[in-house]
Amino acid sequence: MKPVNLKKLNPDKCLVINIHDGYGHTQYDQYEINELAKTAGFQIEETIDVKVISPNPSFYIGKGKIEEIKQLKNLFDFEFLIINEDISPAQEKKLTDALNLTVIDRTNLILNIFSMRAKSYEGRLQVELAQLEYLSTRLVRGWTHLERQKGGIGVRGGPGEKQIELDRRMLRGRVKQLKERLKKLTKQRDMQRQRRRKSGVFNVAIVGYTNAGKSTLFNELTNQKIYAADQLFATLDTTSRKLFIPPNFSLVISDTVGFIKNLPTNLIESFKSTLEESTNADLLLHVVDSSNEEKKEHILQVNRILKEINADQVDQILILNQIDKNKTKPQKDRDEYGRINRVELSAKTGQGIEFLKEALVERTANFINQEKIYYDENAQQPI
User: Fold this and answer.
1) pTM of the model
2) Which of 338, 337, 339 is nearest to 356 (CA)?
3) How large is the greatest C-alpha to C-alpha distance in the chain, in angstroms?
4) Residues 301, 180: one domain?
5) Residue 212 confidence (pLDDT) above 80
């Protein structure tokens, strides 16, 4: 089944199902899936919690819940069912048939939000690749339109070739084409990174959970006006700018895509070249929404993804943002080496930004000294 193109949808009525096992899921999971649905442009008519210890092989949820959803459908007249889990293609089809609704699982929802948000050429290619990788798992037996026979030549397929085989062949061709284009763009990005490295520029990447205030912090530091909003995945495309800090320090700072719990693996793979801005950085500013009750879990999720992309060894400064919501004062903490490793600030009001700039000056100065030592020791072999 092709992912629903949410860009073409008007605000549509939906029912949101929040799956929980009674242990690992918290109330925030419901809040997050609701925010994802709203970001995608849906109007949430009702949200229900469903406890699932062992998923039903056919429908994922129990038959009793299916009857309850039918009653809610008659009451609220919604057309979409959003489920806060990844379900199998067979389960998706059976739910669709049983309920006569368009079923959208968590991965499909996130993929389509990315499709709405991606603006750059590279970003659009990355999203399309991730969507096609997802689609490839949906080409399964049981779909009536895939069971008919196709004859002919060329793209229509050979004599007796089934539609599902034709679809798979065309999909593989497009995936190959996208990977080749992204490979060329990755080479260009690598060359840009190498030039920055050779020029001895200190590179900083802003990372964090989605909607933690990364873009707002980037704008505050660089006096830029990139899009920033109180919504999930407000920006996807990486933006880099040169930052000058008095008296005479300069660095390159990059705003990167936000993370989220259970970020689809195919999205991580497709956005690898973009995420490598974090891997190749000299310093990460790990932005956390200090007002969020789930901030500890968000820190763990971000660090897990950083480890997955081999960026877990990069030096970090923890930025506890949005102190204006907590009505607390800005402050800074230092580690055992005397370096600022934690700053509490508000990117929105600018409170505490001076502490962050102080930390950046310290790290940049240390980087310059290390570069000078490295150059002096290798004077016969200039960098």
Assistant:
1) 0.79
2) 339
3) 79
4) no
5) yes
Instruction: Print the SS3 string covering 150-217.
Output: ECCCHHHCCCCEEHHHHHHHHHHHHHHHHHHHHHHHHHHHHHHHHHHHHCCCEEEEEEEECCCCHHHH
End-of-domain residue from the set 136, 168, 198: 198
Q: What's the one-letter identity of residue 257?
A: V
Domain extent at residue 96: 6-114
- The kind and range of the H/E element at 339 are none
Domains in the chain, number: 3
Q: Are 115 and 104 in contact (CB under 8 A)?
A: no
pLDDT for the residue 231: 66
| 221 and 339 belong to one structural domain | yes
Residues 34 and 45 in one domain: yes
On whether both 338 and 348 belong to a single domain, the answer is yes
Residue 146 pLDDT > 70: no
Nearest to 110 by CA among 133, 79, 84: 84
Count CA atoms closer than 13 A to 49's CA, side-chain side: 12
Please give the distance of CA 247 from its chain centroid, rounded to a whole number. 36
